[in-house]
Amino acid sequence: MKHTLAVLVENRHGVLSRVAGLFSRRGYNIDSLAVGVTEDPTISRMTIVVRGDDRVLEQVVKQLNKLIDVIRVTDIESEDSVDRELVLIKVASDVNTRAEIIQIVDIFRARIVDVSTKSLIIEITGNEDKILALEKLLRPFGIKELARTGKIALTRGAKKV
Amino acid sequence: MNTGKICMSEFTNKMTGARALIECLYREGVDTIFGYPGGAVLPIYDELYHSKIKHILVRHEQSAAHAADGYARATGKTGVCLSTSGPGATNLVTGIATAYMDSVPIVAFTGQVPSSLIGNDAFQEANITGITLPITKHNYLVQDVKELPKIIKEAFHIASTGRPGPVLIDIPKDITTEEFEFYYPEKVELRSYKPTYKGNKQQIKKAVEEIKKASQPVIYVGGGVISSNSSESLLAFAEKINAPVTSTLTGMGAFPGNHPLYLGMLGMHGTKYANYSIQEADLIIAIGARFDDRVTGKVESFAPNANIIHIDIDPAEISKNIEVMIPIVGDANWILKELIKETEHKQHSEWLAKINRWKKDCCLHYVKNDKLKPQFIIEQICESSKDAIIVTEVGQHQMWASQYFQYTKPRTFITSGGLGTMGYGFPAAIGAKVGMPEKDVFDIAGDGSFQMSSQELATVVSSDIPVIIAILNNGYLGMVRQWQELFFSKRYSSTCIKDSVDFVKLAEAYGALGIRVQKQEEVKPAIEKAIASKRPTLIDFIVECEENVSPMVPAGAAINEILDLEVKK
Question: Cβ of B316 and A71 within 8 Å?
């Protein structure tokens, strides 16, 4: 089962390794991790996507809460939240394929941010399904490089995590 | 002529980081620290030279951490240890891990290479905050001397509150020599650390209902009862609801060992009647205990008929190993007082009668013959000094010390329960004796364990710390040998250590008193001589070499599948 955890932490050195250590110790692979400062500059927000046994995850969440630098941990349910990821994809393209790729990019409301004679860089923002679909369509052209930010998420409505 | 500069300095309270560290320790009420000097902590040791804080010089940094731990367990105060950077710091690791596993409040200070060299593989550099990340409750690398007082204040607060544990502060050398305006915060403000002390009233209400319904309850207590100073409340509670009490290894002494409701220890080497009681109970009230695998045996068959109430200050312990019906997170003492108020008197005469029959039929016993038995020695120590503090190493002697000494007060049995650290006992006994000088302090040791910290004989002699080391010398790494006998067809691989050293001569070489005992009738006089001598004393008891710890639940079995081992002999 996949979980998206929003972890509010003190914006201090060493916090990331404390958090990551709790996952690695239990053999939990982190699917993605995004960290950035919040509206309060003393607090950072980590969005961690993990997959695994619910019981083990419950233990990890409790252990996270025990870390002195962790302020709050919330398991964000996908139906009540908005989540996004930004991905840059460098895809091989030449005169013959460029038009076709641009067409696909348009359908996905993605953007082309770099063009050369042999490649294009495409920027896409969206949820996981949308990004996967684009990746699948671009794969036949030859994806040379791909970088993703990791998922970030906010719960819907006025309430905060 | 004094210049205005010095007056100014007094007025403004300017001092170095090293001086500030000592100042902070004063303000935290620290009277003793255990440590070992080195290059990175020279400025701190220079300040200690003329400070009122007693510094006990150990002979290995691991002992400094164990001694701080023993001091903390014996006194209830936070223990403090100090080492230099690199190897000094890494030598603390086993001691810190031991304290972490048993939730003991210690603050460990380590020197670090100067800030400008950190990360350069400098001489005697180790990333000790990284290394101790999973074995500390929290740790700090001081990056600005101005933050040092706040960090120390927080460290003592974190170590001693909530579920206690070790905190490490790593201080680069340049921080200790830098001057700054000293200011000690009166209060700690940590938005992310607020332990729950008051138990949830609704949960307490549910617990009261269950206690009312139960006809075969058992109270199962752990080290949390001792660290929260809840022994009196526990006694009052147990007597009010007339429920028998069993204890974990680290909970020994939380409930008086001579009380009719006491069942002794449960689990792998617990009493049969404690284990039978757990298996037949309809309600288990766990207090400050964590359902460790040495307690539960096969988890699926642990307490099959019981509903479980779990009282613990650490929410992460709830339903970690075993699903519980009613968790109550909070301070054990606070919750017990509420329970005493809310529950009604109960009798359970049938249940207690059944338990008393078990107690009669399957009490702890060993074969008494003309040989010198380790269990007999423990009984004799108990007779000669019933209020002693007993500290142990790890192995067979540790189990006998838990079975055959009657602990009636908290903080009188000190042992490495969670990590199971051989070599813990002697330095921890040093800490206990320094903290409680008026008590007799025994390190019950095995000949294997003792050799892991024997260099501390120098410490006890030079600092005049009269602990008594009772080595139950069987010439084996006995607990491992026992498992090899039972589960590896007596192939004693690397467990025979016979004649490795003459312990009496070793003690004498360091200037301690050494006594060898080979016969039953010599036991009591030796113990009494050791107590009367007021000197560090080592007694080498040459005991029956293949005695086993009994009874025993084999690993992976249910705790009622408990075997008598000495029957075959």
Answer: no
| Residue B466, preceding peptide bond in cis (omega within 30° of 0) | no
**B61 assigned to active site:** yes
Q: Are B201 and B336 in contact (CB under 8 A)?
A: no
Q: Chain B: give the shortest CA distance to residue A20, in Å.
A: 11
Q: Does B479 participate in catalysis according to the annotation? A: yes
Asked, for residue B352, whether it belongs to a domain, the answer is yes
All residue ranges of chain B with pLDDT < 50 are 1-9, 567-569
pLDDT tens digits along B229-287: 999 999 999 999 999 999 999 999 999 999 999 999 999 999 999 999 999 999 999 99
Q: What Rg do the C-alpha atoms of chain B give, in angstroms?
A: 25
Farthest-apart Cα atoms in chain A, separation? 57
CATH number for the domain that contains residue A102: 3.30.70.1150
- Contact list, A21 vs chain B (CB under 8 Å): 133-134
Q: Are A88 and A60 in the same domain?
A: no
DSSP B163: S
Name the one residue in this structure whose structure tokens are 């941990």: A73
B558 lies in a domain? no
Tell me the C-alpha distance between B167 and B156, whole Å: 8
Spatial CA neighbour of A4 closest among A93, A77, A58:
A77
> How many residue contacts between A and B have a Cβ separation below 8 Å?
36
User: Among all residues of chain B, which has the CA nearest to that of A14?
Assistant: B130
**Residue B413 and residue B465 share a domain:** yes
pTM of the entire predicted model: 0.95
Q: What is the mean pLDDT of each run of 10 residues along chain A (161 residues)?
A: 93 93 85 95 96 84 95 87 95 96 96 96 94 96 96 91 82
Instruction: Tell me: do B324 and B401 sit in the same domain.
Output: no
Q: Which of B107, B115, B133 to mutate to test the interface with A (most CBs of A within 10 A)?
A: B133
